[in-house]
Design goal:
heterodimer, A: alpha/beta, Oxidized Rhodanese, domain 1, 2 domains, elongated, B: mainly alpha, about 70% helix
Chain lengths: ~170, ~150
């Protein structure tokens, strides 16, 4: 059959419309609970429910600065080691998501559950901080604060930078 | 080619392609939020569109898959499935070019990296689906199409 015939065939379009309409209807009905939560703004920053990840919250730069300055939290850098070496939040611990995901849990040994963990990545649209936070949650860490503004926002604010050029 | 007109071969293709889509859909329907995050990870659309995709796309896959298997609007299903596969291929290619390392989100927790292999695999599915789309007729259908010859339409 030729594409022209298929496109001219009303049956094809009728079927497509029926499938799409059914999907829309069933998708809406079966996800009413989630849709309500979405409309309440629960998934504005990430897709998880409060019940799933209690203790995981998003924080802004002023909160990060306050916690960091008063040493009330551990700062965790989820970016690759190479980027960490080029510059990071002073005192931050490097826990590259890619390594932990690859099964290397050694970087986690430097973390503690005694203090809140502030996790950041590049900033902008980066998601490694959130993904690391979920992973840490699964490994028993509970007070997790994701700084979604990330490294970009920290740099733009002119805050101190620590560099580590070798011997990491 | 004669094999592409063989009614048993076409039925087998429908079962395979439809079955894969049903399986892919079920893994996503089971956890819409995880799939929404997978969509978001591609960094192509924002939160709202990722959410809407996760709510509706798996149902399109499921219903199109079921329709293909049981033979209700099989050509429409093959059309939708081909369109989706073409879209997935472009999406993965664009994501690779942008240098984004992402899980494909194809089969829920059974997902793997969005890479060249995935493009090849999706291409094979696309070819099979296109064979169905352009096949002369579909037998073994639950719903028979109205008997108007196509040349009159």
């Amino acid at each position: 059959m030729k594409i022209k015939q298929i496109l001219r065939d009303g049956e094809t379009w009728k079927g497509i419309l029926i499938i799409l309409a059914l999907s829309l209807a069933i998708g809406t009905v079966s996800n009413l609970g989630l849709i309500k939560k979405f409309l309440r703004g629960e998934f504005r920053q990430a897709f998880f429910t409060r019940e799933e990840y209690p203790g995981l919250v998003f924080i802004t730069l002023p909160e990060v600065e306050e916690l960091w300055h008063n040493q009330k939290a551990l700062v965790v850098d989820s970016r690759p080691v190479s980027e960490f070496r080029r510059g990071h939040v002073p005192g931050a611990i490097s826990v590259p998501l890619e390594e932990v995901k690859g099964g290397n849990y050694d970087p986690l040994e430097r973390l503690t559950t005694a203090k809140p963990l502030i996790i950041y990545c590049e900033g902008g649209d980066c998601l490694t901080s959130l993904n690391l936070a979920r992973l840490l949650h699964e490994r028993g860490f509970r007070d997790l604060r994701v700084f979604s503004g990330g490294w970009a926002e920290w740099l733009a604010a002119g805050l101190p930078v620590e560099r580590e050029d070798g011997g990491f | 080619m004669a094999v592409f007109n063989n009614r048993n071969f076409l039925l087998l293709l429908r079962l395979i392609v439809g079955g894969v889509f049903i399986w892919a859909a079920v893994t996503k329907i089971a956890d819409p939020l995880a799939f929404a995050q997978d969509v978001r990870n591609y960094r192509l659309v924002g939160q709202t569109l990722s959410f809407l995709t996760a709510i509706f796309l798996p149902w399109v896959e499921l219903i199109a898959g079921v329709c293909l298997v049981i033979g209700v609007y099989p050509r429409s299903s093959a059309f939708l499935i081909s369109g989706l596969l073409a879209f997935f291929i472009v999406l993965v290619a664009v994501t690779m070019v942008r240098g984004i390392d992402v899980d494909c989100g194809c089969f829920g927790t059974f997902s793997r990296k969005a890479d060249l292999w995935l493009i090849l695999e999706d291409s094979v599915w696309l070819v099979l689906s296109l064979v169905l789309l352009f096949s002369p007729a579909n037998d073994f259908c639950l719903l028979k199409r109205s008997q108007k010859p196509l040349s009159l339409i």
